[in-house]
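Structure in, sequence out. Go:
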């Protein structure tokens, strides 16, 4: 009995000496963390031997303990390692950041009105052009838009994206193709 009393006296003395350099705020944070851990343990009384923290417990402890310097955090009597608490805090911040950075309107941004008007003007002025020719003309002008976007715009306006008057690939003009150079060299000049 006396030996046990002496042991408790020495351990409590060292615990009191450990608290001397800590500020009041750090002590309050430690007390809150210890009380919360006791609440978690009381909730799980008679359950598994392993302590399981609910997500809200993790969030509370992470928010509470990350304000402490790392050396003080390592000296606390926690049910989990201080690195685990810091990981909980990183996960909490990651979820918060992902929630705030979610785009307002998911999906592809709408095409600019001026580009849409230009596509429709090109098709109305040149009714035999298909969506690929319009896309090529826009690329020549330096406007970056996908061929599928041109197709969708024409479909939405009720216009045929691929008019049937011309083949889908190849030249659209009736100009004569130049003769390849190997045929020009080998053939006899015409009189």
């Amino acid at each position: 009995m006396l030996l046990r009393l002496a042991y408790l006296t020495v351990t409590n003395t060292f615990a009191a000496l450990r608290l001397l350099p800590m500020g009041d705020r750090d002590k309050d944070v430690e007390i809150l963390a210890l009380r919360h851990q006791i609440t978690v343990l009381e909730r799980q009384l008679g359950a598994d031997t392993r302590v399981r923290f609910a997500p809200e417990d993790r969030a509370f402890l992470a928010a509470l303990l990350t304000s402490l310097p790392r050396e003080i955090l390592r000296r606390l009597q926690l049910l989990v390692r201080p690195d685990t608490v810091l990981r909980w805090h990183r996960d909490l911040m990651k979820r918060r950041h992902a929630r705030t950075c979610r785009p307002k309107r998911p999906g592809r941004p709408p095409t600019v009105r001026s580009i849409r008007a230009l596509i429709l003007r090109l098709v109305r002025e040149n009714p035999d052009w298909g969506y690929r020719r319009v896309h090529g003309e826009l690329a020549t002008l330096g406007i970056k838009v996908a061929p599928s976007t041109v197709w969708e715009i024409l479909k939405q306006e009720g216009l045929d994206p691929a008019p049937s008057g011309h083949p889908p690939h190849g030249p659209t003009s009736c100009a004569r193709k130049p003769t390849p150079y190997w045929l020009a060299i080998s053939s006899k000049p015409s009189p």
